[in-house]
Write a structure and sequence with these properties.
Layout (H helix, E strand, L loop, with lengths): L7 E3 L7 E8 L1 H7 L6 E12 L4 E14 L6 E17 L3 E3 L3 E5 L4 E3 L1 H11 L13 H11 L21 H7 L2 H12 L1
Parallel strand pairs: 5-7
Antiparallel strand pairs: 1-8, 2-3, 3-4, 4-5, 6-7
Length: 192
């Protein structure tokens, strides 16, 4: 028995017009899938399969948490993931992926393994920016980074990384927070 056999969905021998499956994706799943984005987590997946005249609609409801490296300090950061995704599966002569969500599987096999599809849906649900909340990054790493990136001698180790910019931030405040070297580079653009 393979490590992903429990994620096989036998569409060919499906008795009813619909079926439901539930999966709990844990650290072992993420270690076995060996994907580049996520190595740990606990994610619940509810899969509904509906058969129509010529195709099967797979509806994935994903909810849970994953751990990915922080972009700033490289320690693991916990991120919530929630996603609703659909796949359309049709029978054909050989396996093919057509478009974003159309999969063709060989009719004589009639089985689709959804392990990798679930991983892809989870990866796409992760925010682009993976950082800890202000003040929660690894202190040793932020200290080393701030020594190389500090723009103002009065800024503390966490101050450089935790500058908040919101709708109430004035342009003058923003200019104070921006590295003055950028202003010198802007002068080059103004001369052209």
């Amino acid at each position: 028995m393979g490590k992903f056999d429990k994620y096989n969905i036998d569409l060919k021998s499906m008795q009813a017009d619909s079926a439901k499956y539930e999966f709990v994706l844990d650290n072992l799943y993420f270690a076995n899938i060996d994907g580049p984005e996520v190595q740990k987590g606990k994610v619940n997946v509810e899969l509904s399969v509906k058969r129509s005249l010529h195709a099967f609609e797979l509806d994935f409801q994903i909810n849970g948490v994953v751990f990915v490296p922080c972009d700033r300090c490289l320690d693991d950061v916990e991120l919530s993931v929630t996603s609703s995704d659909k796949l359309l599966v049709k029978f054909g002569r050989e396996y093919a992926e057509e478009g974003d969500n159309l999969i063709i599987i060989p009719e004589e096999e009639g089985v689709i393994n959804v392990a990798w599809f679930m991983y892809e849906f989870i990866s796409l649900a992760i925010p682009m920016k993976h950082v800890h909340a202000p003040g929660k990054c690894n202190k040793a790493m932020t200290s080393k980074l701030s020594k190389h990136l500090r723009v103002d001698a009065e800024m503390g180790d966490d101050d450089f990384f935790d500058v908040e910019i919101d709708d109430n931030t004035s342009e003058e405040d923003l200019e104070e927070k921006i590295d003055p070297r950028w202003n010198e580079l802007k002068k080059i653009l103004d001369n052209n």
